[in-house]
Every structure is written in C-alpha cells, then in structure tokens.
Amino acid sequence: MLKVKVAKRRDGFALNAEFNAPTPGVVALFGRSGCGKTTTINIMSGLLAADTACVELDGQVLTDLPPEQRRIGYVFQDGRLFPHMSVVRNLQYGLKRTRAPRPAIAFDQIVSLLGLESLLHRQPHQLSGGERQRVSLGRALLSQPALLLLDEPLAALDAARRDEVLPYLERLRDHLSVPMVYVSHQFAEVLQLATHVVLMDAGQVVAHGSLSEVSLVPQLREIVGTDSVGAVIDGVVTSVDSSGGMAQLRVGSGSLNVGVNAVRPGERVRVQLLARDIILATEEPHGLSVRNQLRGVITSVVNDEDDARLVTVDVGGTNVLSRVTRSAVEALGLRNGMSVWVLVKAVSTRGHAYRVGGA
Fold first, then answer.
1. Which domains does the chain have, with CATH numbers?
2. From edge to edge, which strands make up the β-sheet containing 204-209?
3. What is the pLDDT of residues 154-183, one digit of tens each?
4. Which of 123, 128, 163, 200 is deepest in the core (most CB within 10 A)?
5. Cα–Cα distance between 180 and 172 in angstroms, integer?
C-alpha cells in the first residue's frame, strides 16, 4: 500500500493532498496543469521540502529517510540523459546508483522490455524523443527503485512518439512489481495505464480510486470536457473472433462486442463508453443494427450542459452514463429505479479498448 499525505504553501498556492493506493500498479495523478501534481511527487522524492509530509510504502515511512536513501526513481519530461555517455553507459549508471541489497531488475530484462537492443551503442543525440524516454525509463529502473515517479514523461513528445512509448510503459506495468506514480493531464494516457487514479484540483485530492470509480465523478467530467464524458469499464473476455478482430466481454450482467486485438478468454480489457454514444430504450429493441445491448436500471438523472441530462444506469454492478436531452427524458419518463435497455454502437468502443494488466 502507498500512503501519501503532503502539504505545502508557497506563492499563493496551497497543496494539501492525501490518498492511499494499492501496490504494485500505476497510480495516476490526474488534473489540470497547476493543480499540484508535480509538487506532490517532488515532495515524495525529497526534491522539494514540504511543510508536512508522510509517505509510506508497504509499511516503510520513506519521509523518515534522507532523499538519497528512499530508493525512489524519477523520470522527467525531458529524459536528462548524460550527453557524453552512450546508451549502454547511461543504463549502467543506473545500476551503479542502486542501494538495493540484491538487484531484482536485470540489465538484460530492461533492455528486452524496453526494446533497447539496437540502441545500446548510440549516443543520446542520435536518438528520437521516444527513444530517449525509453532509455531514461531503463536507467531509472536499473537503479532498483522501490518506487518510480514519472512526471509527464510523454509531454514533450508528439502524438506518434507518445503512441510509440505507451506500449512499453504497459509492459513495465505488467511485468515488473515496481509501484509507479504517473503524473499526467492527458486522460488517454491515464485510460491506458492507470490501475488507480488520484484526481486533483487546486491543490486538493477531490477523488481517488479505480478508474471505473473515478470516471463517474462530476469533477472529472468538468476537466475532460463534454465530448470525453463517459464510464470506464473493465470487462472479462469470454470469446474471441480473431478473423474479425472482435472480442466479447462480460460486463456486469451482460456482454459487449468490442474491437480489440491479441487477447485471450479470461483476460480483462478496459473499455471507455462515451456518454454521447449511449442510447436508452424503455422497451427491448428489435430489428436494429446496434448489436450491443445491456439491460439495466437507472440510478440517477442529473442536469448536464446545454439543457441535457446525464443518466447513470446500473447494468449489473457496473455503471454506464448516457447523455440525453431534457425533452427525451420527459417524453420517456426516465427516472430513478426505471428499467431500461442500454444500446452501444460497437464503433464507440473501438479505439478505446485497452488490455489491463494483472489478468
């Protein structure tokens, strides 16, 4: 378990953040720029003195130790490789810095996980931005950290380079037992990587929990914007149609057909269902091209932007959101406790389905 409680006041800004998160996994600190995410991890690492701070990892209070003894790795936005050292020497520098009594992360393992085999004898100036960040990750991990902090490591990369690095971060999450705290204001990164989310606003933690839980919090909807509002669901693969690139997921008491590659029955897949793509029906639909249909019960109807209503539907222990016009709510008589059918176009899940580690 990672337990964090930090406070810092400076230049008209007050940070007062507290959260607990299970380990191992990827804890995403998410929120608008300037909300205190980087300040939080700088205090955790010891780079910034706090007014008060207590960081406990699996029973050990890290803030009782000087920064150099906390065994915390840190990956910055810009990589910060040593320009006069080759890739292999940058990586070996990480090994030399370890304070672990018995190294658990091997050099060859990191080279393989991060796909660095062809880069080892290059100089930093010969690397792309994505390659430099992969080397930075490797160097930090080879120092054998008990905790890895990542401060928006993809922020300086273009979209293509971000897409290049994200799968490597997934591999690290799934193959190593090192807890990670990942700072980001890009929800797509959080969606793909996080096992636990800490939502921050104006120096405060406004919510934390699984991504499924936090995806339903109103403060998240305010940050990500109307078009990105939706529920995030982890479903279990029950069958695969490899020829069509489709898989069937068990979600709540029903199932969804989604476009996702290279998964096997029994694995979990994360799906984002956008509220704008969810249709509600008060009677069982027939003769429709929409194949994804879930039966559920309305648990709330609240006001949303532009005279719309946001309807939450429990589909068997899992909640989904649907944006419906006010007039439609009135015409259909949508209310708490009402049984409805949730219709989801398959295309709305395509491109949002991600394999979840730990299956």
1. 2-224 (3.40.50.300), 230-355 (2.40.50.100)
2. 60-61, 52-57, 2-10, 13-21, 204-209, 196-201, 26-30, 180-184, 147-151, 72-75
3. 998 888 888 889 989 988 998 999 999 999
4. 200
5. 10
